[in-house]
Amino acid sequence: MAPPPRLVNWLKATYARPQINPEWLAACHDYITEELGVSPEDFESLKTHVEEQLLQSSLADSAAPNTGFPDPNSHGIQIKNTLCEVVALTEIGHSAFTLKNVRQARVDKEDLAGLAGDLEDGEDYSIPKYPRSMLRFELSDGTKTMRAIEYRRIPDLELGVTPLGTKIYLKEVSVRRGIIYLEPRGIQIKGYQTEELEESQDRHFVRGLRLRMRSLFPSLSFSGALNLAQVRVSLPHF
Q1: pLDDT tens sequence across 166-191
Q2: What ranges make up the beta strands (E) of 131-176?
Q3: Within 13 A of 172's CA, how many CA atoms are on the CB side?
Q4: At a CB cut-off of 8 Å and minimum separation 6, what does 52 contact?
């Protein structure tokens, strides 16, 4: 059964860009009415379930190609009324070495917390937070990916907490030299996550840190143990 025109029009008005893939919407409507048992006449329930499915999905599946972002190299323009998702996230106000050390401390704490039953009471299992200065993102509309930075602090976005696939609605943001400048007044965080992206988040985060370190020390190899003599000579103060 085709989605009712009222639902299609509501989606177009609520999420102007990117356009919703008609095939995805039809399959989503069938799932909601047939599998979940929602009446095709219950517009409010249909609307709620469709929006939830949209925000949980990958925009690569639910959005029509090339109907969201402008040219990724755009400059001096604004993006308005566009839904996108976080596909990468890191902190650029602190060194890759600092972030790498905090990540390892978090892994160690998580391992200790998993063994809590075998350890003495009173042990501190709290997971350390990443330092916070300025976040950098890669945002996708399902087809194109654009870089973005936290131009003004956005409290609801946090490295180590915000999952990949988190949807952000860009109400009105500026683009300069291919970079989207994010600030609280210009966006609405919709939340949710995409399982496939989230499962690979740590792997991509570590790879990004290694690339940053290699750019500082191109003669060093980070695939194995570092040569301590090289580090003493090359390592700057952070």
Answers
A1: 999 999 999 999 999 999 999 999 99
A2: 135-140, 145-150, 167-176
A3: 1
A4: 192
Q: Look up tokens 């639902």; give the residue.
A: 7
Topology of the domain covering 77-217: OB fold (Dihydrolipoamide Acetyltransferase, E2P) (2.40.50)
* Vertex 190 angle, CA 80 and 54, to 5°: 90
For residues 58 and 136, the answer to whether their CB atoms sit within 8 Å is no
User: Is 88 within 8 Å of 208 (Cβ atoms)?
Assistant: yes
Q: What is the pLDDT of residues 97-154, one digit of tens each?
A: 888 888 898 888 877 766 555 555 556 668 889 899 999 999 999 999 999 999 999 9
- CA dist 173 and 133 (Å) reads 20
The pTM is what?
0.81
Domain edges within the chain: 5-56, 77-217
